[in-house]
UniProtKB/TrEMBL annotation:
Keyword terms of this UniProt record: ATP-binding, Nucleotide-binding, Transport
Pfam families, alphabetized: ABC_tran (PF00005), oligo_HPY (PF08352)
PANTHER family: D,D-DIPEPTIDE TRANSPORT ATP-BINDING PROTEIN DDPF-RELATED, TRANSPORT ATP-BINDING PROTEIN
Family under the similarity heading: Belongs to the ABC transporter superfamily.
Biological process, per Gene Ontology: peptide transport; transmembrane transport
Source organism (scientific name): Planobispora takensis
Domain annotation ABC transporter: ranges: 4-245
Protein name as catalogued: Peptide ABC transporter ATP-binding protein
Matching CDD domains: ABC_NikE_OppD_transporters
InterPro entries the UniProt entry points to: AAA+_ATPase, ABC_transp_ATP-bind, ABC_transporter-like_ATP-bd, ABC_transporter-like_CS, Oligopep_ABC_C, P-loop_NTPase
Gene Ontology MF terms: ATP binding; ATP hydrolysis activity
Amino acid sequence: MTLLEARDLHVEFASRGRRARAVDGVDLTVGEGEIVALVGESGCGKTTLARTLLGLERPASGTVLYGGAPLAYSARALKAYRREVQLVPQDPTGSLNPRHTVYEAVAEGPRIHGLRDERERVASALSRAGLRPPERFFPVYPHELSGGQRQRVVIAGALALDPEVLVADEPVASLDASVRGEILALLLRLRAELGLSALVVTHDLGLAWNIADRVAVMYLGRIVESGPVEQVLSAPSHPYTQALLSVLPESPAPIVLSGEPPDPTRIPGGCRFHPRCHVLAAGKAAEAGVDGLCRSQPLEVLPSSAALQAACHYARARQPRL
């Protein structure tokens, strides 16, 4: 069952008299009990997509659906929706009020939503997040906690509302390597125990490999490859995914992309990746007879599907024909 869905989503911002297409046609689903990783380099639009799925940004066109129903943007509807779909922010230090105790931080959500049994909710959420005994953390301030403990407090704040979906934006980026595994294990345990679904936004493909069921690779406002995590990351089809994977320590040689990601106000014609594509630059696309398509023929939006798929002329030319 699909819980959260983006359908042909477009998000634009004004930029120096032009329109920046931060999200430029995205279909994406998060199923019940499923963890989906959204990966890509900085500036590709993944955080804007996550904020739009949370109702924090309003799309220029397209639809966000929850439980099959389009998201409404009235204050009352958004308040009810955000109890079901909760954010786990990237920086726990910045998101926690230094003047509030752990108890006050976790109790904030239940108070906003007028939920009863506040103390029991806070204790249960802290315990589920791995802070035990929870009462010991009630009077503690954020500066008295380690980075991993602060991230657990942020997760507890989301759990206090009994959500169905977590949207985690770079949930371990600010943590030491020794703590990252603990937080990832916590997210997997929450999925197993509570049936939680999650969209994990990250630039780290190693993290996606360890936690996700499916992965969606985003470039310049659009998903360019998606599918089961084992298939995408063990044999990537899109040259951009290959380049992202090549920087992992076990990769034989890194693929260095030329230049920076293009300006989202001036998205290139043809394949949006072609100005930086190492496959095109090396002449492999020409050998396959698709170099002209790469430079001139735009690729369609990838549908939301569990199957392996890539928006790449070269990858499609190499697929065996039945």
